[in-house]
């Protein structure tokens, strides 16, 4: 039941992110539902990376499992690299990523999960961290592949999102392997 | 068997530009083989070389990777985006290598 509830959380978020892909017949609703613009996409993507870095730092503080620690170190390293690329692009284009409801929902949900994780120790932490990483990467990959890349107008942003998606898909595979090892 | 290959590290260099040729023939009999790290793969995954050849790995991905030898024949090299690293092959043998950060990334050298 807990797993279902957790998954539903990401499903709700996914529906928010992907809603722009749905064709609306009401013009006012269509405007509202047209999906994130480039500045919002940049903000959401950066926020999503930062969230996983913070999960990873929590794992490094709590877990003693080598598999979990190795994965967490990977998340810190890779997401920092991707976010640094994003910052470089933002500086190059002289734009300011735009805060938005999706970024805020992501951050709120991440706070809830971090609070939950912080109460756990040992195998309980490792299993919950591993499960969340798999669910989180599935959610992010779905959003990047099916909402952000198709919606992005700036070609450099689109290209960076494509490179980031390759990275995150590798993480999803790694997270799946980690889940098998800690379960 | 792994120990039969003798490899000399030439240098660690940073290459900022993209699009280097896949394989560069030189005036001497030895050749420079380029192995690109792209989309979380070593490409080509298997490389056949000859003693005296040089091998250059270059990271085209946006995240760091390593070129790490199974068995520790050479010290692992961390390559950030755009960085490359070369080594020279001195004698025959086969060797497996991988990325420590993303262990599903594997490659092999066959020196003959």
Name the descriptors.
heterodimer; A: 183 residues; mainly alpha; 7 helices; B: mainly beta; 11 strands; disordered N terminus
Give a written overview of the molecule.
The complex is a heterodimer of chains A (183) and B (112). Chain A is mainly alpha-helical and 183 residues long. Helices cover 83% and strands 0% of the residues of chain A. Chain A has helices spanning 2-18, 27-32, 38-62, 66-93, 101-118, 122-151, 155-182. Chain A is globular and about 45 Å long. Chain B is mainly β. The two termini of chain B are 13 Å apart. Chain B contains no helices and eleven strands. In chain B, 0% of the residues lie in helices and 53% in strands. In chain B, the strands form two sheets. In chain B, strands 1, 2, 3, 4, 6 and 9 form a six-stranded mixed beta sheet that branches. In chain B, strands 5-11-10-7-8 form a five-stranded mixed beta sheet, with no helix packed on it. Chains A and B meet through helix 4 and helix 7 of A and loops of B.
Assign a percent range to the helix content of chain B: under 10%
Distance between the first and last residues' Cα of chain A: 17 Å
Query: Element order, helices and strands of chain A?
Result: HHHHHHH
Radius of gyration of chain B: 13 Å
| Order of helix and strand elements from N to C terminus of chain B | EEEEEEEEEEE
């Amino acid at each position: 039941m807990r797993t279902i509830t957790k998954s539903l959380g990401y499903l709700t978020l996914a529906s928010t992110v992907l809603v722009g892909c749905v064709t609306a017949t009401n013009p006012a609703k269509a405007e509202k539902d047209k999906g994130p613009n480039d500045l919002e996409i940049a903000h959401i993507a950066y926020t999503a990376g930062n969230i996983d870095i913070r999960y990873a730092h929590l794992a490094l503080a709590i877990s003693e499992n080598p598999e979990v620690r190795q994965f967490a170190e990977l998340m810190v390293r890779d997401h920092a690299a991707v976010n640094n690329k994003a910052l470089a692009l933002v500086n190059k284009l002289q734009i300011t990523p735009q805060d938005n409801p999706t970024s805020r929902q992501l951050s709120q949900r991440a706070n809830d999960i971090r609070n939950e994780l912080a109460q756990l120790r040992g195998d309980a932490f490792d299993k919950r961290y591993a499960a969340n990483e798999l669910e989180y990467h599935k959610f992010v990959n779905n959003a990047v592949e099916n909402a952000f890349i198709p919606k992005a107008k700036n070609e450099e942003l689109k290209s960076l999102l494509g490179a980031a998606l390759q990275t995150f898909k590798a993480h999803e595979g790694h997270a799946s392997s980690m889940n098998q090892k800690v379960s | 068997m792994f120990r039969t290959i003798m490899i000399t590290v030439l240098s660690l260099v940073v290459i900022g530009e993209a699009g280097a040729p896949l394989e560069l023939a030189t005036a001497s009999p030895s050749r420079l083989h380029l192995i690109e790290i792209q989309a979380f793969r070593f490409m080509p995954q298997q490389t056949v070389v000859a003693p005296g050849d040089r091998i250059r790995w270059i990271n085209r991905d946006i995240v760091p990777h390593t070129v790490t030898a199974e068995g520790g024949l050479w010290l692992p090299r961390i390559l950030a985006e755009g960085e490359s690293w070369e080594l020279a092959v001195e004698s025959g043998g086969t060797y497996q290598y991988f990325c420590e950060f993303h262990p599903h990334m594997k490659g092999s050298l066959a020196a003959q």
